[in-house]
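Entry 14. Ran structure prediction on the chain below.
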Amino acid sequence: MSAPLEQLLRDARIDLVLSRIEKDQNVINQVIENVDNDIRSIRFNAILVLGEVGSSCGEDAVLKVSNYLDDEDWSIRREATRTLGKICNIAASAIPAIAKLINDEEITIRTAVVSALGRIGKVTPESINCLKTALKDQNEEVRAEAAKAIGKLGSSAYELIPDLMATLKDSDWLVRTSSAMSISEIGKETVKAIPNLIQALADKDWRVRYRVVNTLAQMGNITIPPLLNMLHHKDPIVRRSAIEALGELKIEDPKIIYELSLMLKDSKEEVRGKAADSLRTVGKLAVPALVEALKSADTKMNVIILSALGGIGEDSIEAIPALIQDFERNKPKVRAEIARTLGKIGKNSDIAVKSLQTLLYDKNTSVRREASLSLGKIGPKAGAAVQDLIHSLQDKKPDVRWRATEALGKIGVNTPEVISNLRDLIKDVCDYVCESADEAIDKITEEKINLT
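Output, C-alpha cells:
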C-alpha cells in the first residue's frame, strides 16, 4: 500500500511526489492544499514541490504560495519566493509581494527575490524599483543576481541600462561581468551604454574584459568608430581589448583591416599578437596586410603572423611567394613555422610542395619534421615529394623519420621502393617509428605486415 501524500511530504520524498503528479495531475491540487499544513516540514516541501512542477501548477498555486512570502520562518519565505520564480510568468501577480522582500535581512532571500523577478520576466514599477535597489545591495551575490535578472527581462528593461552601466565599475568582477552581459541581452537602446562599455575595456579583471568585448561585438557595426578610437589609447590593455572586439566583428572593411595592420607594429608584444589574431578572423582580405607585415617583423612576430596566415587556411595561398622568398635566411623558428603554414595553405600549390621538398633537407630538425608533417597534410597532391621523403626515412632524428613515414602513408604512392623502405623501418630503434611505418604500409597496401 502506497504511503499517504502527507507522509511523503513530511519525509521530503520529493521524487515520489513528483512521480505521482506525473501519473495524475490532480495530485497537484492535493499538494496545494498541503501548503497550509500546520506541520512545518509538510508546508515547506509542498511549496518546494510546486516549484519543481513549475508553470503547470496554475494560478491557484500562485495565490496559495504568495500567502507565505511574509511567513515568520525565513526558510519558508525563501522557498516561497523561489517557487514563484520557477512558476515563471504565471506568477506575475505576485511581483509586488515578492519585491517587498528585497529589504529582508536574509541574503539568500534577497538573492531569491531578484532571481524570481528575472524568471517571471515581466517589467512592472515594483520589479524595476526592486532591481535598482538590488544593484546597490551590500552583498555582491545579490548585486550579481540582480544584474543577471535584468538581462532576462529583455528589451522592456531598457530604462535600467544606466543602472547597469554604473555597476560596470562595481568592486566585484562577477557583478561587472553580469552587468555587461545583461546590457547586450537587453538589446533596445543599448547604444547608450557604448561609452561605458568602452571604458570597461580597461577593467583590471580579464573575465570582465572578455564579457565586455563580446557585448560590443554583439552590438555590431555601431561600435566600430569608438573601438577604432581606442586603438590609440595609452593603455595597452585597452588597445588589445579594442583589437579583439574589432576582430570578433569579422567585418571585411578595408579601413578596419588597415587600422589593425598598423597595430602589428605596436610597442607591446601582446597587442601585436592580438592584432595578428584579429586579422586572422577577418580572413582572406587581411592576407595582403599580414604579408606586408612580414617584411619588417622580428622573429617572434614573424612566427605569429605566419600562424595567422595558416589559420586563414587555403584563402592565404597568395602569400606563398612571400613566405618562400629567401626563407633560408630566416631563423629556424621562422623556417619551421613557414613549413607548418605551407601545409595549411598550400594544398593546391605545386610551389608549396616544392618548397617543402627543399625544407626536408634543412639543417634544423624542427624544420625537417614540420616539412614532413605538412607534406602529409597536403596528401596525394604531394606525390612529387615521395623521393625526398624516402630520403628522410634515413634521417638521424627519430621524429623526422616518424613524420616522414606518416606523410608517405597519407600520400599513398604504392611503389616497391616506398614499401621496401617503410619495411626497413618496422625494426627501427624507436617504437613509435616502427608503429608509424607499419600503419603507413597498411594505408598504402591495405594489407597487414607480419612483424615476425
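The mean pLDDT is 91. Will compare against last week's run tomorrow.
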